# Entry
Amino acid sequence: MMRRDEVLALLAKSRTDEVVLTTMSTAQEWPAFSQSPYDFNARGTGMGHLPDMGLGVAVACPDRKVWVFNGDGSMLMNLGVLVSIAHTAPPNLILFVFENEIYEVTGGQPIPGRGRANFAEMAKAAGFPHTFDFNDLPTLERELPRILKLDGPVFINVKATPSGKKLSTKMVPVLAEVRALREALTQARR
Amino acid sequence: MLQPKAIIEQLKKCGITHVVWLPDSESKFMYDALQAEKDLGFVPVCREGEAFAVASGLWVGGKNPVVLIQNTGLFESGDVLRGTALGLELPLLMMIGYRGYMELKSGKQPVDTAAVYTEPILKTWGIPFYHIETDEDTARIAEAYKQAQEISRPVAALICVEYNE
# Structure
C-alpha cells in the first residue's frame, strides 16, 4: 500500500486547473498540497454525497475536468451514485476512492466489507467505462498521466494507508469556500 | 388536475436549466413532457438525497437547477439537504410530489403517513412552501422560485395532485 499523503502529493503535482472536491480525511490534508480557488474541501455537507456534487459540477462545467476525492466509508454510504454517474456519464469527471479500510476520522473502526468489497468492480458493474485499482505508488505514478487524459467518467480506487497525522472531527464552515469556487468558475467563463 | 405544460411554462419563466429527478408514482406525464423540452438538461438519480448534492454542484457550476422528487424522497434526503441546499444557502426551487395530500385534505385515510409528516418537516427545516393544486396555482411556482432567490434557501412547490395528460 501507499500512504495517502504520497498520493495527494502526486495528484497535486499532476493537477492543472481541474476542480477538486475533497471530503473527510482528504479534506483535512489536501490544503497542505493545494491552495486553489478551484478546490472545495467539503466538511459537514452530507456524508457520502460528494460524488453527486461532483456530478453536478461536471455537468455544469463540461469544459473543465472535475476530480472528486472520496473515502471508502463515504463511498459505501451512497453506492447508487456510481450508477447515477455512469448513466449521465460526464466525460470530464474522475472519481477517486481512497481505500484505507477504516473510518479514520472517528477512530479507525473497520468499514463493512473490509477486504472483501471491491470498489473498482462495483464501478465497472455500474457502467463506468474506465476503472482502475492501484495499491502501489510507482504504478500509479506511471499510469496516471494516461488515465487523466481519458474521456470518462473514470473511477480510480487507491489503496492508501493513513498519512499518520491525527485527524480532527471538528466541522469547519465551508460556505465561504464554496462561494469562492462558484465565483472562480463564473470568472473563468467570462 | 394539473397540466404539465402549465408547469413547464413556469419553469421556463424561472430560467431553469436542469431538472434533477427521481420518478414517483404520480408524475409520469410530467416527465414525458419535460423530456420533450430540448432546452432542459436532465440528471436522473438513484436515490433522492443525491438530487440535492447534484443540484448543489450544478449551482456551483453556474447552472439553475430544480429538484423534482416525492415527499418520501424529501424525508430520505435529510442530512444531505441539511449539508448542501441549506448549509450552502442554495436558492433552490424544489418541486415535491405531495403523496397523500388529497386524501388527507378530504379526511380520507392516506395510503401511508407521508402526507402527515410533509409540512411539519418542511416547517422544521425552515423551508417555505406553496401548494399547487390547480393550473391557476402554477403561478406560485415562479413565486417560490423568486423567494428562493431572495432568501438564498430552498423553497418548495408542493404538487398536491396528479399531473394530467
The two ends of chain B are 9 Å apart (CA to CA). Chain B touches chain A at residues 18, 20, 41, 43-47, 49-63, 65, 79-84, 87-89 (CB under 8 Å). The beta strands of chain B are 18-21, 41-44, 65-70, 93-97, 129-132, 155-159.
